[in-house]
Specification:
By secondary structure, this protein is of the alpha/beta class. Among the domains are: 152 residues, 3-Layer(aba) Sandwich (Rossmann fold), CATH 3.40.50; 94 residues, ANL, C-terminal domain (GMP Synthetase, Chain A, domain 3, 2-Layer Sandwich), CATH 3.30.300. It is built from 17 helices and 25 strands. The protein has an 8-stranded mixed sheet, with helices on both faces. α17 links the parallel β24 and β25. α3 packs across α4 and α4 crosses α5.
Length: 546
């Protein structure tokens, strides 16, 4: 017998997503012929390449991509995408092929995403933080047959078979390039710019997980639900035919997703190869951008510039700062709002889950650090360790999500845990009496100290509020008496000299005694990956030197 509740939920989600996409200007129902063509192209070349074709026809002279090399209009970008797609096909690649790209944020990444779609090739987005071993293992696992890479990653690409086709996507002139390896500039200048023959079906793409606990897993996407964009635009104010600065890595889920939605809304994307706090302010002012996409560590550096530096730049057009990728502490949340006003949106999700929840500016004022509420087509649930549903308010549980952008499983055949159709996020969370959601920490980060459950993130958030702390990480380490104890790694704020007892007293004044770190270690910096996530496995857990 059909589940009437599930049917009602699906109908409500569908109607809600359609209304959301219409309000955002992404879905236009007035031209059914064009809508049908878009749906057909989406299935054959993927959403990015399909939308690019429309943008090139609708607004050919408006800016599409800006980076350190300048700005490409939609017409120019479309033609260069075709040139790259035709070059890949002429190289013997095609349907069934998989190629990789390892590049900083510049025009090559969105160009590759569109070109591989038009060529029927599957694209794997490689992490710029890879070492040689990780790069080689992922390339082998994903069956990479060609590589696009910036010159700075030549040493990684050189580990691949010598006859494997390559294109150098950004040249700095600091490293020798083999004479038989073309640059992207050469490809787009000499390539055929006619639209290549459409493949039978979109080959999809692979986005890698953060890899904070080991080798990054590959999250394959061979279809994209049209509702994926609704998950973002339902609760985040984004411009139409405006400008977005993205400093969050495009090879990762957040940067990629916001670029894709920006593409669908006809926005110029401003990219920067390396993050610089003041140059980001300059880019926002120069392009009169309405939105910024960043990770918390980047916002921390921007706030640290101080009000005098920030005031030098005209940010009057800035309406949205979207932060994601790692936890937003309540302290940083308040600092960003003080510096830039009520424009902050905290997006919570993952490569696998997609967008699960978004906190809007008013909610972050009310409850700094909250992840807000689920957008249309997203449903959140808490379960205990036995798989029983938790419905009580302010009660921690394992967070599971079901969204309109379903996960297809990892490329190595593994999958996430599911309960009643909800997928594990890997986090512990709770929801308060105002229906606002909060992350308590990773479910595998919880430690038991003297019989008490402790989540390090709670202690991290508290220490982040201390004026003498610039950056903080708290982990559990073995303890002969208590089983496990907390160890805090502290980066002192500039000009500050906090001592261990002072920081312990700060925690003791606000939290239970068993949550006070026994060890306080002062360090120059903390190991973070390109998306700002703390790589906890790189922190020392053994005995400390006296």
């Amino acid at each position: 017998m059909p589940n009437l509740g599930a049917i009602r939920e699906q109908l409500s989600d569908t109607f809600g997503a359609i209304q959301t996409l219409r309000r955002a200007g992404i879905l236009r129902l007035g031209d059914p012929g064009r809508l049908a063509k878009t749906i057909k192209n989406n299935k054959r070349v993927g959403p990015a390449a399909a939308v690019l074709e429309h943008n090139a026809a609708d607004m050919p002279d408006l800016p599409a991509i800006s980076d350190e090399r300048g700005t490409l209009s939609w017409r120019e970008f479309d033609r260069q995408v075709n040139a790259l797609a035709n070059h890949l096909l002429d190289s013997g690649l095609g349907p069934g092929s998989v190629i990789g790209i390892i590049a900083r944020d510049h025009r090559a990444l969105p160009m590759a995403l569109c070109a591989t779609g038009r060529a029927g090739i599957r694209l794997a987005l490689m992490n710029t933080g890879f070492g040689t071993t990780q790069f080689a293992e992922v390339a082998e696992r994903e069956h990479i047959e060609a590589m696009l890479h910036d010159e700075e990653f030549t040493h990684l690409a050189d580990t691949l078979p010598g006859d494997l086709p390559r294109i150098v996507t950004w040249v700095e002139g600091e490293r020798p390039i083999r004479g038989d390896i073309p640059t992207l500039d050469e490809v787009v200048e000499s390539g055929r710019t006619a639209m290549p023959p459409a493949p039978d079906a979109w080959a999809g793409m692979v986005i890698l997980t953060s890899g904070t606990t080991g080798l990054p897993k590959g999250a394959g996407r061979s279809t994209f639900s049209p509702f994926a964009s609704a998950l973002i635009v339902d609760r985040i104010a984004l411009p139409q035919r405006g400008s977005i600065v993205i400093v969050s890595p495009v090879f990762h889920a957040t940067g990629f997703a916001l670029w894709g939605v920006g593409l669908a809304m006809g926005n110029e994307t401003v990219l920067m190869r390396r993050f610089d706090a003041e140059k980001t302010l300059a880019a926002l002012a120069e392009h009169r951008s309405q939105a910024l996409v960043a990770v918390p560590t980047m916002l921390h550096r921007m706030v640290a510039l101080g009000p005098e530096v920030i005031a030098r730049y005209d940010l009057s057009n800035l309406k949205s700062i979207v932060v994601a990728g790692s936890a937003l502490s309540p302290a940083l949340c308040a600092q960003v709002q003080q510096a830039f006003g009520d424009v902050l949106y905290n997006l919570y999700g993952s490569t696998e889950v997609g967008v699960a929840s978004v906190a809007q500016p008013a909610e972050l004022r009310q409850a700094p650090g909250t992840i807000g509420k689920p957008p249309v087509t997203s449903h959140l649930a808490l379960f205990d360790d036995d798989g029983n549903r938790i419905r009580e308010r302010n009660t921690k549980g394992r967070l599971f999500a079901r969204t309109g952008a379903p996960f297809e499983g990892y490329t190595d055949g593994r999958n996430k845990d599911f309960i009643d159709g909800y997928m594990s996020s890997g986090d512990m969370a709770y929801v308060d009496e105002n229906d606002l959601w909060f992350i308590a920490g990773r479910d595998d980060d919880m430690i038991v100290s003297g019989g008490e459950n402790v989540y390090p993130q709670e202690v991290e958030n508290l220490l982040a509020e201390h004026p003498g702390v610039d950056d903080i990480a708290v982990i559990g380490v073995d303890d002969a008496e208590y089983g496990t104890r907390l160890r805090a790694f502290v980066v002192a704020a500039e000009g500050a000299t906090p001592d261990a007892d002072e920081l312990r007293a700060h925690v003791k004044a606000h939290l239970a005694r068993y949550k006070v770190p026994r060890d306080v270690v002062f360090v120059e910096d903390l190991p973070r990956n390109p998306t700002g996530k703390l790589v906890r496995r790189m922190l020392p857990t053994g005995p400390l030197d006296d």
